[in-house]
Task: inverse folding
């Protein structure tokens, strides 16, 4: 559970770093948007690296990446609706559902053991 919580928090920071400037940073020069985003992303790395270290063993590397992507989409969906004020269209929901099916297949069957 610590892995999931840390991944959620890291994705909040990364979403703000990558997309936050779209609403308020239009007047910034590109170098400033990159620098501010990088500073925010540093916090993301401070959460994502421990999340993956804690989770590896309980989850495979493939499963960790799939978890991270599903969390990323969920966090972004909330961010886009609340912060960017974008509408959630039916086709996005269908795309997310297909990704949910992909995640199901990643966890529904026993993963092969890692090779040494």
Result:
């Amino acid at each position: 559970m610590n892995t999931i919580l840390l991944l959620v928090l890291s994705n909040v920071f990364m979403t703000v770093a990558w997309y936050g400037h779209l609403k308020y940073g239009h007047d910034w020069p590109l170098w400033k948007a990159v620098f501010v985003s990088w500073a925010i992303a540093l916090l993301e790395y401070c959460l994502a690296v421990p999340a993956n270290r804690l989770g590896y063993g309980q989850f495979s590397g493939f499963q960790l990446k799939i978890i991270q992507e599903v969390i990323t989409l969920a966090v972004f969906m909330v961010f886009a609706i609340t912060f960017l004020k974008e509408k959630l269209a039916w086709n996005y929901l269908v795309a997310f559902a297909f990704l949910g099916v992909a995640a199901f297949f990643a966890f529904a069957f026993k993963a092969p053991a890692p090779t040494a």
